[in-house]
Specification:
The complex is a heterodimer.
Chain A lengths: L1 H23 L24 H11 L12 H4 L47 H4 L1 H5 L8 H10 L1 H11 L6 H12 L8 H7 L8 H13 L14 E2 L15 H4 L8 E2 L21 H9 L10 H5 L6 H11 L5 H4 L11
Antiparallel strand pairs in A: 1-2
Chain B lengths: L1 H14 L6 E7 L2 E2 L6 E2 L5 E18 L5 E11 L7 E2 L8 E8 L3 H4 L15 E2 L4 E11 L8 E7 L9 E6 L4 E5 L15 E2 L4 H11 L4
Parallel strand pairs in B: 1-12, 10-13
Antiparallel strand pairs in B: 1-2, 1-6, 3-4, 4-5, 4-7, 4-9, 7-11, 8-9, 9-10
Classes of the chains: A mainly alpha, B mainly beta.
Chain lengths: 343, 218
């Protein structure tokens, strides 16, 4: 009798806890002051803590890959700005190697285009690519739906989050987007200085770096995201093994050959290696690359041709010092984005 | 040939139990097309089909009496292998209309809408993940015209970007409550399988083939 009373109380307590979590725990997404409105369609996928937790568990779960060996987090590690540290291009199942450097994930709610070639137009649909890509998770969507449906943990979790017994791809990608849209990085030293927070000041070297950044870099890497949805040539010659023509793959337009989307520089200190194919491993060498460019190359982006990057050795150090102020350790070690399973 | 067509017509009319619905009927030489059935082209080359999937959207029906237009802005998925996708507009009195125009495929706004539910469900196999958008029409099969070991051909025809926005406008008279889609007209004039037997990317070729496909309706 006592035992059954205890079970009843435990069940009641658990239900209250679950109800409280769902209704009290705030979704981690937030809109930093002074930032523009997000591009993400929140009406189509309203913020919901339960869906966020489901998306978080899925992000870290290799169940998404054909042989259950690779998760999203395999190439997007939190402490390296959700990029793939020390790997030039992404890795897939069975040791398969992709063509492109897995980009860092941050402030995706403000992006209109995704992937280095901008081939994906919304955050929800983006997840379908790595899941189905033969060089990444190589998973058929129908097989994945079957797998999730057969999992007692996930079928219950989707039921709780979406009220469905019929898990469809749109449920899956909306759950994942609840997690990825939450990855807001807006608490770096740069942000603190911009907000005028007490004790937040640039050193002389960082301040000079910011001036140089504004002069030579900001026309493409636009604050506050230090990125843009534009496609540019930064003078890198084609890799003859990868044969990646970038934006032209999507548009079929020769003018778009070797153009790649301008990536974010937020947390750039931690998201090495760099460039679309990860060919440069050190940030200081990325800066040097721009100082050594052939500015007579007509294929170079017009911003670079108009305003060649001329930096002395010391100025390069100053610029590097500024770029490190874009590191947001609150974001990199945020408990809410760490590995998690369905509770 | 005439007898065959009449047989086809009669059997089809018998098959329609419910008056006031619209069917699209793919055909070969005026007979309802069957998957995996071997047909002969005009030049006596063999051909069979394993896949025929397509989208229709933005229907505009013109009324017989008033000439008024009834617009139905919806996306319809058709799969020859799935009979549940063959009948549309079950509540529409088709006999009240003279003609219908529709889009074979999806326009750019539908392609980029971000919808992934119902007719947009990626499980239907029409979603292009690498380049956000949908295939307007998928056609696959085998033909002696394809000079490879397997004789396979496969076309994923789509693309919504200028200048090769490939969705096509089609207008047909509604003499009956079905629209015929005669595929024998494609070979060899629209699709030369000797030259092209695989096409998976948007562009001029996909655009021209879809243009030819649009002319195969009625």
């Amino acid at each position: 009798m006592k035992g059954s009373r205890f079970l009843l109380f435990a069940f009641f307590g658990f239900s209250v806890l679950a109800f409280t979590l769902k209704n009290v725990m705030p979704h981690p997404f937030y809109q930093p002051k002074e930032w523009p409105k997000p591009s993400y369609n929140f009406k189509g996928n309203p913020l919901d803590y339960e869906k966020f937790e489901l998306g978080r568990a899925l992000f870290y779960d290799p169940i998404l890959s054909r042989d259950s060996s690779i998760s999203c987090a395999s190439c997007h590690l939190q402490f390296t700005a959700f990029a793939h540290v020390d790997h030039k291009t992404s890795h897939g199942i069975e040791g398969r190697i992709g063509k492109r450097n897995a980009p860092g994930l941050a402030n995706l709610a403000w992006r209109k285009l995704f992937h280095w070639d901008g081939g994906v137009l919304n955050l929800n649909a983006q997840a379908i690519n790595p899941i189905t890509h033969v060089a990444e998770m190589d998973m058929r969507l129908d097989s994945l739906m079957y797998r999730l449906d057969r999992s007692p943990i996930y079928s219950a979790a989707f039921k709780r989050a979406f009220g469905t017994d019929d898990i469809r791809p749109f449920h899956l990608v909306k759950a994942l987007a609840q997690f990825t849209v939450a990855l807001v990085s807006a608490n770096s030293k740069y942000d603190k200085v911009k907000r005028g927070e007490e004790k937040a000041t640039f050193t002389n070297q960082e301040a000079n770096g910011l001036k140089l950044f504004t002069k030579f870099c900001a026309s493409c890497h636009k604050p506050p995201f230090f990125a843009s949805d534009d496609f540019k040539s930064n003078g890198l010659p084609i890799d003859l093994e990868l044969l990646d023509f970038g934006r032209m793959t999507i548009t079929g337009n020769k003018k778009d050959s070797l153009l790649f989307m301008v990536p974010t520089l937020r947390n750039i200190e931690y998201s090495f290696p760099y460039m679309h194919d990860g060919r440069i491993s050190k940030l200081k060498d990325v800066i040097k690359h721009y100082t050594l460019l052939d500015y007579s190359n007509p294929l170079l982006s017009k911003e670079l041709r108009k305003n060649p990057v001329k930096l002395s050795e010391n100025e390069q150090k100053d610029l590097l010092s500024f770029l490190k102020t874009l590191t947001d350790k609150t974001f990199l070690f945020d408990e809410r984005f760490k590995y998690s399973t369905i509770k | 040939m005439k007898v065959a067509f009449h047989l086809f017509l009669v059997s089809f009319l018998f098959s329609i139990a419910c008056y006031g619905q619209l069917r699209i009927i793919p055909s070969w030489d005026n007979k309802a097309l069957e998957l995996e059935q071997v047909y002969l082209t005009e030049n006596k080359d063999s051909i069979s089909f394993s896949t025929l999937k397509m989208y229709f959207s933005d229907f505009r029906f013109r009324e017989k009496l008033s000439g008024g237009i009834t617009e139905i802005d919806t996306l319809i998925f058709y799969d020859l292998a799935d009979s549940s996708t063959h009948v549309f507009f079950k509540n529409l009195e088709i006999s009240n209309y003279d003609d219908v125009s529709f889009t074979l495929g999806l326009d750019s706004s539908k392609n980029v809408s971000g919808e992934l539910e119902n007719a947009y469900d990626p499980l239907l196999g029409m979603y292009w993940a690498w380049n956000t958008g949908y295939v307007n029409l998928k056609l696959a099969g085998k033909s002696s015209l394809v000079l490879t070991k397997t004789h396979d051909f496969e076309f994923h025809l789509g693309g919504y970007r200028f200048p090769y926005a490939s969705a096509q406008q089609v207008q047909v008279d509604l003499l009956d409550s079905y629209i015929q889609f005669e595929l024998s007209l494609l070979f060899p004039d629209v699709i030369s399988l000797k030259k092209t037997h695989h096409l998976m990317v948007p562009g001029k070729e996909a655009f021209l083939i879809l243009q030819g496909l649009a002319a195969c309706f009625n």
